[in-house]
Amino acid sequence: LQHLLSLDGLPREVLLQILDMAEPFLEVTEREVKKVPLLRGKSVFNLFFENSTRTRTTFEIAAKRLSADVINLNVSTSSTTKGESLLDTIDNLCAMNADMFVVRHASSGAPFLIARHLRERGLEHVHVVNAGDGRYAHPTQGLLDMYTIRHYKKDFSRLTVAIVGDVLHSRVARSEIAALTTLGVGELRVIGPKTLLPVGLEQFGARVFHDLRQGLRDVDVVMMLRLQNERMKGALLPSKEEYHQRFGLTPEKLALAKPDAIVMHPGPLNRGIEIDSSVADGPRSVILPQVTFGIAVRMAVMSLLAGQGAQA
Ligand code: CP
Predict the structure, then answer these.
(1) Is 195 in the pocket of ligand 1 (CB under 6 A)?
(2) CATH 2.60.120.10 for domain 12-138+292-306
(3) How far is CA 256 from CA 116, 271, 284, in A?
(4) For residue range 197-212, what is the model confidence (pLDDT) as tens digits?
């Protein structure tokens, strides 16, 4: 694997290989000395053109635990503010011997553009990891979510998984649907208001619900999404109060799922809108373990791309 740009079309065996590779890295994160030398001598550039708390930080931790040198480009003080283009920025960082770019960008396709540019420049040894592009893909979030489900629930084929909320604007949902489909989930449900669900979800084998109570009945996994206001621009939307009343996850609605159902959320949370605090902080929530698993999964992805012997 040269780049990780999307989970669409990623073979099942590669997906499972990443999840399997992450297992021992989770143990590394619990050791007193948390470092392994797999990326020693490599330079990983974090390029976050859009804000992030979890993804940026866990990529940095993951790269450091692999012994890489990590450079966080501060976009707001970089020369992009003087009009320097994305690809000129990439060329200059390549001149500093970059080995990997971890890229978040508000524009869908930006990491693909960088990967193509590197190929055209003959820089095939430089890797790109998509850390979230527009509303298109967030592959490492999709992978850490699959890791979380497997950790708590084991066999995907026996599970009913519900994705709830603003699927239309969600790169996370797109990556989750791709991964769940590849892994052969038993039943995939997508729940949300008509205005926030894309058309054609049925072609991925999803059952579509516009009523949260109906959709949650007997599910094993509830994956909540936030309203992505920054990507909506003039969409016809319910008010926050109406949204909470119809699609907010409350203890009473969660009681319709299986008694051992887990609740996931990629973060950031909008408490009191898509999820109540009593659910987010409750016994069925695995929201914070998702963040911890994200370090191990990102270590696995970076090792697979650029670790010693990775391209042998
Ligand atoms: N889940 C996620 O992408 O969170 P951040 O935006 O904080 O990275």
Answers:
(1) no
(2) no
(3) 47, 20, 13
(4) 999 999 989 999 999 9
